[in-house]
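Quick note —
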Amino acid sequence: MNKGINIRNASFHYIYTRNHTESRTFQGIIDDLPRIAGMGVDFVWLLPIHPIGKTNRKGTLGSPYSIDNFREINPEHGDLNDFLRLISEVHRYGMRLMIDIVFRHTSHDCLWVKQHPEWYLRDETTLWIELIDILKYWCQLDVDEFRMDVASGVTMDF
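Predicted structure written out below.
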């Protein structure tokens, strides 16, 4: 895996797990990695992989941007072991793995809504500790990069 890649010249393959293969799983992505790597891709970039809230869902499947828990895997895609295998295989093919982190998009039934309503009033200093812990968690699992959705809404102090 080339850690010294110049991101300005990098190629990204954006994957919406639910639509990428018929299986709609991490295993489906793993099975497709030879083709993806063969295109010269540097980064495999996954749309949100977290569980989708159930309250006020859009349609039967819900929006991947309606996050219920930022530390868990959407069971529709597989489990944590499947995700770890995906990370390992992406790295084995010399690519890096990036995941969408959509902190500005939580579901109506996310625990934060009841436990920390102040976080939705922009009390960001107490929220930052939680957000940093979430990023550290995924880094410990060997996720290489993050795309921060609505990053313009996050203060530079963060």
